[in-house]
Amino acid sequence: MQNNENLLSLDDSTLESVHDRIESLMNGRTGRECAQDWDVAHSTLVTLLHRRSDPKLSMLLKIANAEGVTIDWLAKGEPVAVKEKEVPSVFHERIIEKPKFNVAASAGGGSFIDTETPVEYYPFTYSYLKRRRLLHAELCIIEARGESMEPTIEDGDDLLLKLMSEPSSKALEGVYVINIDNQLRVKRLEFDVVRDGYRIISDNKIYPVEFIDRDDLERMNVIGEVAMVMGKPSKGLSELH
Q: What pLDDT, in 10s, does the model give residues 74-116?
């Protein structure tokens, strides 16, 4: 028998929307990642979303607090009018600035590093970096050039990089900024077990797949993983926070 005292009393239409809102907050993360970020049991979260069961208020409070949304919106989809005196509190959250370097990583034929001096700093909120598990990572921003990674990365997009302090002992899978023969490039890496080396892939299919075998890996230095494609600077950063 369920303890109704700890459950939200919602009609069927609201129940459907509350699950949709929880799923929208997952934003591409797995259920296990969200459970860890929200400090809830993974099995409970999976059951809630799979069975569309009644959510406990305690769980919704944890999710709302972790994601920076109101419990009224999460539980009922109701917009909440913000009082004028409450507006400044939005700006009291801790801001962490990350440097942008005057460096272009080519998504085409390759570019050289111009300088390693920061040209500006981009602000990120503490809670945003925490949600993305980037709070303790060494981060920087550089610009992408070329069209070979379209539509994933477009010419002029800013890339948030999670820098690698030392070579990885595990095979890398994903989009990385790499340095090959003094050319900084952004490509998708995929380890080929059979050929014992990395496939260097362009998301734009008109570009051929390259390959570098294990004996030649000293030519390739992995700078960092692309944690986010931030878009062109003209788009601004407000949508990221």
A: 887 766 443 333 434 444 567 888 888 877 766 655 454 444 6
Q: What is the pTM of this model?
A: 0.56
Domain of 47 in residue numbering reads as 7-82
Average the pLDDT over each of 124-133, 136-145, 208-217 and give the range with the smallest value.
Answer: 124-133
Q: Are strands 95-106 and 139-145 parallel, antiparallel or unpaired?
A: parallel
Q: Torsion angle, CA of 153/226/236/127, rounded to 10 degrees?
A: 150
| 112 vs 207 pLDDT, higher one | 207
Domain tally, the chain: 2
Count the alpha carbons within 13 Å of 215 in the hemisphere toward its beta carbon.
1
Quick check: 102 and 125 in contact, CB under 8 A?
no
Contact call for residues 213 and 195 (beta carbons, < 8 A): yes
> How does DSSP classify residue 193?
T
Q: Residue 182 maps to which CATH number?
A: 2.10.109.10
Q: Is residue 1 part of a domain?
A: no
Cβ-contact 75, 58 below 8 angstroms: no
Instruction: Write down the H helix ranges in the chain.
Output: 12-26, 31-38, 42-51, 57-67, 71-76, 126-131
